[in-house]
Amino acid sequence: MATTEQFAHQSVMLDEVLEMLPTRADGFYVDATFGRGGHSRLILSHALLDRLGVGARLIGIDQDPEAVIIGQQLERADARFRIVAGRFDCLDQVVAEEGRLLDGLLMDLGVSSPQLDDAARGFSFL
Question: pTM value?
Answer without folding.
Answer: 0.73
